[in-house]
Amino acid sequence: MGNDNRQVTEIRGMSLVVKTVARISVGMILMFGVFTAFYGHINTGGGFAGGVIIALAMILMLVSYGRDIFTNRFDEYKALSFLALGVLGFLVLMSLGLFVKDGYFCMNIFDKGKPFGLISSGVILPSNLIVLFAESAGLLTIFLGLVYFKVWKGK
Amino acid sequence: MTEYILCFILFCIGLYAVVIKRHIIKIIIGIGIMEYAVNLLFILIGYKHGAGFPFIEENMKVMAGVSMVDPLPQAIVMISIIINLTVVAIMVALAVRIYEKYGTFDITKIKRLKG
Amino acid sequence: MIFIFVIIPILTAILLTLFNKLDRRWLGVVTSAALGVNLVAAFILISKLAGNGFQPVVYKLGGWTVPMGILLVADGLTAFMLVLINLISMICAVYSIKYMDKFLDEWKYFVLFLMLTASFNGAVLSGDIFNMFVFIEMGTISAAALIAFDTAPEELESAFRYMIFGSAAALFVMLGIALTYAYTSTLNMADVAVSIVLNKNVALISFITVLFIIGFFTKSAVVPFHFWLPDAHSSAPSPVSAMLSGILVKVLGLYALTRIIFNVLGADVSAVLMAFGVVSMIVGGLLAVYQKDIKRLLAYSTISQVGYILFAFGLNTQLGFFAGLFHMFNHAVAKSLMFLTSGAVMYATDERILDNFGGGLRKKMPLTSITSFIGSMSISGLPPLGGFWSKLLIVIAAVQSGKYGYALIAVVVSIITLSYFIKWHKEIFFGELPEKWSNIKESPLVMLLPMIILALLCAVSGFLLLPGISSNFLEPAAKVLSGGVEYGKTVLELAK
Amino acid sequence: MITLQVLIVFMIIAAVVAVEIQDLLSSVVSVGAIGLALSLCFLLLKAPDLAVVQLVVEILVLIILIRATMSRDTKGSERMRLFPYVAGIVFISVFTFYGYAVLNGIPEFGHPVMKVSGQYIKHALVQTGSANVVMAVMLDYRVFDTLCRITILLTAAVGVLTVLRRESRKKQEEVKTDGK
Fold first, then answer.
1. Could you tell me which of A155, D59, B67, D156 has the C-alpha nearest to residue C13?
2. Across chain A, which distance is largest between two alpha carbons, in Å?
3. What is the C-alpha to C-alpha distance for residues D92 and B17, in angstroms, rounded to an integer?
4. Which residues 6+ apart lie within 8 Å of C335 measured at CB?
5. Contact between residue D112 and residue B47 where contact means Cβ atoms under 8 Å apart
6. What is the C-alpha separation between C360 and C440, in angstroms, rounded?
7. Could you tell me which chains touch chain D, where touching means 3 or more CB pairs under 8 A?
8. Confidence of residue D173 (pLDDT cuts 50, 70, 90)
9. C73: which strand partners?
10. How many CB pairs under 8 A join C and D?
C-alpha cells in the first residue's frame, strides 16, 4: 500500500530531487531573463538573450516534470500563435515611423529620454520586450514539436 | 594573423565532416562547427587591441572617440547565431523523421532515390 | 515604398498562422491576392523607373544615411526580377489552391510559400550584403520545409540533402562577407563597390570571389554542385518544384552571383562562368535523356538551361547579358509550366514513372497536353515561341564575341533538349490510350487557368523583343549588369 | 593574445574529437565543449552580449542534439573510404594555403579599419539614446535584419511543425468525398 502513492508521484518526469531544484530555480531564471531584456539597452543581453533564457526555463520545467504538465492546456499551436503575435507586434512597432511626416519604415520615432535611465532609448526598449516574447514562444514551439513527436510514436 | 589561420582550420574541419562523414548526426555536427568558425572569424575581425567593451558609461567622454571594440560584427554575429540554431533545429527534425522512416542514420543506406 | 514587396507576404503569412482554421480555398485565395498586389506593385515600380530614366529607386530604411543604415535599392535589374518572381509565384499560388486538397494542414504550406516569396523579393531588393544573406537563409529554410511537406521517405531524404548543400553554401557566402567586411569595413554594396575601386588588392578580391562563386554555384545547381537539385525537384509538391526550378535557382543563385560579382566586386570571371556554363549545359542535357521519372527529367533540363544562362552571362557583353536575362525569363515561365502540367498529370493518374504511362492522355486531358507541348517546345527552342528567340540571341552573342566552338555546343545541346522533350511527350500524351487511364478526367479549372496563362506567356514572349517593350523591361536590366561597378557610384549619390 | 590562441587550439582539438569519435553521445558532448569555448573566446574578444547569447543558445543546441540521439545510440559503422578522404584532405589543404597566402590583405589582427562603426560609436548615444552600442546597431540602425531574423524564426517554427506532423495526406476515402 505504502509504495503505491510513492509510485504514483514517480511516474512522470525525473526524480524528486530534480523536481524540487527545478521548482526553486525556475522563478530565478525567469526573473533573470526578464531583467536581461528590460535592461538590454544599458548593459549586456537584450531581448534575444532574455528570450532564449526564458525558453530554457520553460524547457527545464518540461524536462524535469515530464510532458503532461503542458499537454492539455498548452500545445505547440498556441505557442506558434504567440510567436505570430510577437512578430506582428514588431511589424506594427516598425511601421509606426510611416505615419510621421517624412518618416521611413523602421524609424525610431519615440523620444530618446534620459540617456542612462530605464525609459531612455525610444523604440529599443519596447522592441526588446516584443523580441523577448516572440523569441521564447518560437524556441518553445520548436522544442515542443521535437518532444511531442516522440509522444505520438509512443501512443 | 595566426588567429585567422586557426579559424580557417576549424572551418575546414567542419567542411571535412560534412563532405566525408556518412552518419547524419555527424553531418549536422559538421555544419555546427562550420557555423562556429564563421562567427568566430567575424568577431576576430572586429577586435581592437586595448579597446574597451562597446558600452558608453556615464562618465565616459564619448566625443573624445574613446577606443571601443567594433560593434557592427557583434550585431551581425548575434543575428547569425540564432539563424544557425534554427538551421540545426530543422536538420535535427529531418534527421529524427528520417530515422523513424528508414531505421538508420547512415546516409549511404538511405538511397531510395535513384539516378 | 519598395519595402512593401517584403512586408505584404510576411504580413499575410502571420495572419494565416493566426487564423489557420480557414477553409483551404480561402487560404489559397488570400495568398494569391497578396502576391497579386505584389505583381501590380512591381508593374507600378517599372513605370516609375521608366519615368525618371531608370535611375535606381533608393529607400533609406529608418532614415539613416548610406553607411549607417540598410538601403533598399530597386534598379532595372531588380524591377525585372521582381516582375518575374511575383508573376510565377502568384500563378503557382492559384495552382496550389486545388492541388493541395490531397494534403492535411494546408495553412502551413501557404505560410511557408509566402515566406519563400518574401525571401526572394527581399534578396532581390536589398542593397546590403548581410541583409541579402539573411534573405538567402530564409529562402533555404522555407524551401527545405516545403520539399519535406509530404513526409514520405524520399521527400525527407531530399530535403535533408538540400539543407546540407544550402547551409554549406550559405556558410561559404558568410565567409566571403566576413572577409569583405574585414577589407572594406562596410556592408553596404554600393559602399563596398566604391571602396574596392579605390584600393584594389587583387589577391584578396580573387579569394573572396572564389568563396562567393562556390556558394552561389551551389545555390544555382551548376554541375559540380548540382547533386541536390534532381532529388529536391522530383520529390517536392509540383507548385513548389515549379517555384524552386523557376525562381529559387535563378534568384538566390544567378541574380546574387551576378549582382555581387559584376556590380560589387567588379571581378573579371567571364572565363570561369563560361566554362562552368558550358559544362553544366552538356552534363545536364545528357543526364536528362536517361531519366525515367517525369519530374527528375525536368530537373536535369533545368540544370542544362541554367548552364545556358550562365554561359550568356559569362560572355560579358551587353548582348550577352540581354540574351541571358531574356532566356532566364523564358525558361522560368516555360519550366514552371512544365512542372505544373506534370503535377496535373500526377494529380489525375498518381503515376510518375515514364515507362508505365502508355501514352494517349491527350484524349482525356486535351488542354493539359496542349499547354505542356507549348511549354516544352518553348524550352527546346521551336521558332515561333519565346525560347527560340532567347537561344538564338545567345548563339548570336557567342558568335559576335568570337566563341564559335561554344556556340556550336549550344546548338547541339538544344537539339538534345528537343529529343528528351519529344520522348517526354511521346510517353505521356501521344499514342493510343491504355484502358487503365479510361476513367481519368481533365484537371480542374483552378489548375488549368494558370497553365493556360503560362502557355500564352510562352507564346507571346517573343514580342518582348519589340523595341517599345524591351527598352523599359529587358534593356535597363542588361545595362545595369554590363555597367558593372558604376552601380556603386549612382547609388551613393542618390542615397546621400 | 596567447590565451585566445590556446582556446582556439582547444576548439580545434575538440572539433576533431567530435568528428572522429564513434560514440554519438560523446561527439555531441564535445560539440557542446566547442560552443562553450567559443563563448569564452567571445568574452576575451570584448563581446559580452555574444558570450551570453552563445552560452544560452549552445545549451539549447545541446538539448536538441541529445534529444535526436538519445534513444538511438547506434554506433557509426564507418568503413574508411579512401577517395573522398584524400579528396577532402587535398581540398582543405589548398583552401587553407590559398587563405593563408591571401590573409595579409586584411588589416592585422587587432587593428580593424572601423570606418562605419566609428560613426556608430560616436553618434550612438545621441541618435538612439541607448548606451549599449551593439543593441543600438541591432535595433535601430540595422533593424531590418532583426525583423528578418524573427521572420526566419517563424518560418523555422512552422517548418519544424510541418516536418514533424503525423500524417501528411488525407486518407483515400476522405479525398474522394472532399474532391467531388
1. D156
2. 77
3. 11
4. C242, C245, C246, C298, C301, C302, C305, C375, C379
5. yes
6. 12
7. A, B, C
8. very low
9. C58
10. 134
